[in-house]
């Protein structure tokens, strides 16, 4: 089940910040981190992220639930590196055919896994604390995004929970009409593909009708739009972005000073 | 405040040979309240779309002219508010209040005026929740009211309503009609499409009947039109008040039990329910919006797994699968034994043409090609879908789609037929045809279960009724 | 005013492109789980996992073929990435950058033909270029630590092949199939069907 509601406690000091500010802060923070492959900078970043979590009103349990696929991805990184690492220097721990585990491999793996977590967490935090409507409003009002596109995307986003219901209805309709796959795996695959296709058709049809309904209420009439919900980009929002940049730079500087820094390019 | 002039208006949808409407000359003065009638497929919805300026130039061919206050409707959208039959596709935003505000923002209403106008519109339609209520959490009737509020907030000079109460329970329908009556200013022009004339008459002072082939068949004050043309209109499919239909109750007592539901439920959608369905009996399931009727229909139809309790089919119905409950049967076996008609006709469709749609069931249940063709042709003719045999089911008018979805289930002649709202949006002629088809099926010893809000239908066909009540609703106030 | 020839987006263009993006955003989200789940299965030759890659690139080509307006491919791929991030992708904000890169690839292909031709070869080219965009991003960002010849290069090549076949050819086939259902009647891609 996909849940779309933001999961943060609404009153939390940073969750209330302007969505564009949160998004920019997360972007700045992660882009700085992306520059390195070492384990130290991301480790510091993760510590920072976990420390500010309560300020966003996200509970650790909620974060863990959203972040569990990351652990699977971490396993994948490890397996891949064991087989294909570029840097196989250092002490050799295991060597069996293509499987080579060395100190270098493990350090790289640690770096990559930590980097993945450090880069993914800000995104998860921002999206877990941001209402899509507020995001669209802020994008239009504070980031000068074209209103027609932001609102169109927002209206389409409302269909996500409906898609899930629709999937169930389509499956039921097929069953009621005598179409099923039984135990044959190929038939199953075909039925799956046909349901997915029908879902896409239904979604586009809904989109077409939605567009008509939006036009009926003057969406594209050329009149300049007004905004009912004001989003403000205050000094506190700017401060959030600047702080994020400073924290990321600090993490990077620490890594450089400790001599662990390994630039991504070069 | 807005007047409408149509001169020789016609529209042909892209992909169709026939004109949906043609040769319509009509003049509606500012402040008039018009009921637009006509058989299913006569082009009522198309005409409303034209008035709302919502027929895109690139999607069909136009003849003649339409003018709203002397303007092309595509340029006069500011003056027109329209409410379609299906509220779900009209809601744009995630929160109820934002949705009402959407139209106001588009029209550039100053920000400080928006929220007072939103609140006023919500109050006028009797919307029971705060404006932060998520639109996804509204029942059909509530969505309809919210969509109406979104339209009224724009203060349109011309209000167009397309079957605004189809699918609502009688209380909800009364509420929406009252909301419309209360919300109309003295100078708002109203054009209303509604098959059930008797309920709509208090709202209007003029009746216009569209002729399916083209043109306007009758026009004038309701009493005058019905006095002059009542007989002919009723024969052509219009629900003329006072023209009742003869009932078709079972001549013989009900036979053996086909299906037994024992404490059957699916929390929180349906509270545990006991039920027996017998051969040769038409059972009607009634109840307010959200009572769980459609859920019950899906459970009885073997389409969803019960949350509580059991569904047991008799040996006669279950055949080889006597020991398993219907929801575990293979689909072809199920389709041959229990037929289901979904509430939303479009949920029923799985193929690309009307003909394939009808042929699918018989083919899947192992009928010969000749037999299939014969069944399909008979149904096409009887439900007047023959000229649409090659059309895509999703391009049908509301009533046509409903007929087709019922016909797909009739095509396999299942022992037990379960229909969810089979008669909504039907003109009188098809309505009678549907009642006759279901009655024939029952008289031939099949079981028929219908979920319905249609009191006429219950009076005409049902041998027994079961009324469901809303399970306790923790989420909000039930209006 | 003939909308179909102009480059201005109509409301249907915007909403349908968004709907495609949203539908695929959900697919991406599910696909991300599948990707992680098949990590172990592809361990024997992880670059082969890139065959799954093409699915991530379909919306770019599909939107380009259906909407036929400048920016459609880029917009759709980016919004799809944003949606999957909103739903909670393990790659979070980074997918948005990836979406941009991938979208630009397809966009360039359609732009090269001045948004006039939407035939199979153009679709395949768009698929290949969006694959190229994706491959470059991954080459630099995700795969930096892996061996060049045994991993990074095969991975990039497989990504491009997968994109060409699945996203390029696949999206073209999908567009035709969608046109046959009649849902694309409001778009040039859906015209010319038989009358009934
Ligand atoms: N989008 C469409 N594409 C092609 N044909 C259409 C489309 N919409 C409606 N039609 C056809 O146009 C004719 C008139 O349809 P319309 O929906 O206006 O009828 P209606 O009078 O509202 O009928 P009902 O009472 O059943 O709703 C029908 O034959 C229908 O099949
Ligand atoms: N897929 C679903 N998931 C959760 N709740 C649902 C779902 N479908 C329906 N419901 C809820 O279950 C209750 C029963 O729904 P159902 O559709 O069975 O009502 P109904 O009696 O058929 O109403 P109506 O007369 O409006 O068709 C409603 O409150 C509805 O909001
Ligand atoms: Mg209609
Ligand atoms: Mg129902």
From TrEMBL, chain A:
Presence of keyword Transmembrane helix: yes
Pfam families named among the record's database cross-references: CbiQ (PF02361)
InterPro entries with a match to the protein in the record: ABC/ECF_trnsptr_transmembrane (IPR003339), ECF_transporter_component (IPR051611)
Keywords: Cell membrane, Membrane, Transmembrane, Transmembrane helix
Broad class of where this protein is predominantly found: membrane
Compartments where found: Membrane
Membrane topology reported for the UniProt record: Multi-pass membrane protein
Record-annotated membrane-spanning stretches: 20-37, 43-60, 67-86, 106-128, 238-261
Recorded GO CC terms: plasma membrane
Protein name according to UniProt: Energy-coupling factor transport system permease protein
Organism this protein belongs to: Micromonospora humi
Automatic annotation (TrEMBL), chain B:
InterPro entries, alphabetized: AAA+_ATPase (IPR003593), ABC_transporter-like_ATP-bd (IPR003439), ABC_transporter-like_CS (IPR017871), ABC_transpr_CbiO/EcfA_su (IPR015856), ECF_ABC_transporter_ATP-bd (IPR050095), P-loop_NTPase (IPR027417)
MF (Gene Ontology): ATP binding; ATP hydrolysis activity; ATPase-coupled transmembrane transporter activity
One protein family per Pfam: ABC_tran
Keyword hit for NAD: no
Keywords for this protein: ATP-binding, Nucleotide-binding, Transport
Record-annotated membrane-spanning stretches: none
One GO cellular component term noted in the UniProt record for this chain: ATP-binding cassette (ABC) transporter complex
Signal peptide range: none
ABC transporter domain mapped to chain residues: 4-238, 252-479
Domain of life: Bacteria
Keyword match Zinc-finger: no
PANTHER family: ENERGY-COUPLING FACTOR TRANSPORTER ATP-BINDING PROTEIN ECFA1 (PTHR43553:SF24), HEAVY METAL TRANSPORTER (PTHR43553)
Stated family: Belongs to the ABC transporter superfamily.
Name this polypeptide is given: Energy-coupling factor transport system ATP-binding protein
Species: Micromonospora humi
UniProtKB/TrEMBL annotation, chain C:
InterPro entries linked to this entry: ABC_thiamin-permease_prd
Keywords, comma-separated and alphabetical: Membrane, Transmembrane, Transmembrane helix
Native source organism of the sequence: Micromonospora humi
Residue intervals passing through the bilayer: 12-31, 51-67, 79-100, 120-141, 153-174
UniProt protein name: Energy-coupling factor transport system substrate-specific component
Pfam families: ABC_cobalt
Tree of life domain: Bacteria
